[in-house]
Amino acid sequence: MKPVYVAGAAVHPFGKQPGLNAAELGYRAVRQLVEQTGITPDAVDVGYGGSSYGGSLLTQRVLQRVGVSGPPVYTVENACASGASAVHLGWQAVASGAADCVIAFGAENLSSFGGGTLPLTTNDIEIEQGMVMPAAYAMRAQRYLHDFGATADDLTAVSVKNRRNGAQNPRAHFQREISPQDVADSRAIADPLRLLHCCPNSDGAAAVLLCSEDFARQLDTPRVRVRGSVVRSGTFHTQFRDMTWPDITARTAKAAYEMAGLAPADLDLVELHDAFSIAELLHAEALGIAERGKAHQAVRNGEFDRDGRVAVSPSGGLISRGHPVGATGATQICEAYWQLTGQAGPLQVPGASVALTHVTGGGIFGVDNGACAMHILTAD
Amino acid sequence: MPSPQSPPAGDRQVGADITHQHGTRTTLTITVCHACSARWFPPREVCSTCASDDVENIESEPQGVVYASTVVRVAPPGFQAPFVLAYIDISGVRVLAHSPSSDQALTPDTPVRLTVAPIARTAEGQLVSYAVEPLDGRDDTTTPTTGETR
């Protein structure tokens, strides 16, 4: 495989933007990316756009506005992992030698659905029972607290940390710190989860430039190396399942670490899929950055703080940054790019040289999640 | 298997064709694969682990045990909050069901029995489904337990 680089990153800030559809949001991120990297439209060999609700031919509708029309482009749907799946396919194209320059982006508008829980559109036996994503994570939380002696306060500590991190992120949906009391006072959503244990439904977009070594040399932008890029689907069964151990994350991580030749102890930062605060505890353990049943202690001890043992979601995570489903995976890679090139400003993790990004999602019955995508990036 | 009972006019029953009522005893149809021993709910024509069609539908036990539970306080369209949901381990499969007689989350490992009960109101009547209720302490039947996880 050929080495693959990220040589540019752009985010259209996340938040409530009901007037901007997914194509408009995607265009704004891609236009910034083109301006910052100085690439010409004819240099783009292939484009991938990730979105769950953005509609048919989203990638054409975005890329043709910046002059990329004619080459192959694809719209990728993999629920919350859509944007990172688009990046993964771009990585494949460059690693295989089929492409030298790829634009990969994620874009989503969720305001069009109004408030409340995200609609689950894939009707199945659990959705017929009134299943919603907060309920699925609430039951994982109940079982984790039951099995490992953690408390609802431990869930709250994750929200407080990630909101503190995101308070300094100009791209975040929520840029205000919260206290444990704020969480306790927020509305109950699905016991034991309260509103401030949940990420917001957001609108936004993010884009990255993936390229070969030769192409990266022609650019004036800093670059980072993609050491691992892995996508996995959920293992489908309806037998008993340990819902405190997200097997899909563990399998994806194992493959990503092997590809990168790196281990959990090598990571300086992780951008993790904290759709709900319990998710940070479950996935941190499956990623191997905390011992089984002890991630809540790691959060309590400050080990996941920006200046801790391994910074977890220094950009604020989904809880602060927001979750425009298909854009989340792409924006994590942008945040990691800025960290590894020393451009993260107030979010900077001191001396960051190895980053992992993790998204997993999809509410269908019989799996942990429908899809998980992971990237390991290193400073060049 | 006895034929499923029909709900009253205006009501709609989720899973009517895979729910069986024998007096107060309620069971579900599950599929057992003879090629790989995987078990499935809802039932399947082909095993989704090994793709064998050497599968058989059987009736579950009438009782199971709670794996995890929550009170949903923000309802999706068509449902009325709050309502209690629980994952139930029963006869080798995990089933998501309402616990309509409960007003708080069921503690893991609580024994429950299957029932058929309304789980939501609709414009035409009630949405009825297989559901669960906690067993009272006087029940002398054997309490099932959660087995090995996959």
From TrEMBL, chain A:
Listed InterPro entries: Thiolase (IPR002155), Thiolase-like (IPR016039), Thiolase_C_2 (IPR055140), Thiolase_N (IPR020616)
Thiolase C-terminal domain boundaries: 237-363
Name of the protein: Thiolase
Pfam family, one: Thiolase_N
Domain Thiolase N-terminal, chain residue ranges per copy: 4-214
Chain segments annotated as coiled-coil in the UniProt record: none
GO MF term set: acyltransferase activity, transferring groups other than amino-acyl groups
Species of origin: Streptomyces albiflavescens
Automatic annotation (TrEMBL), chain B:
InterPro entries reported for this sequence: ChsH2_C, ChsH2_Znr, NA-bd_OB-fold, Thioester_dehydratase-like
Domain ChsH2 C-terminal OB-fold: 59-115
Residue ranges constituting the ChsH2 rubredoxin-like zinc ribbon domain according to the UniProt record: 28-56
Domain of life: Bacteria
Protein name, per record: DUF35 domain-containing protein
Source organism phylogeny: Bacteria, Bacillati, Actinomycetota, Actinomycetes, Kitasatosporales
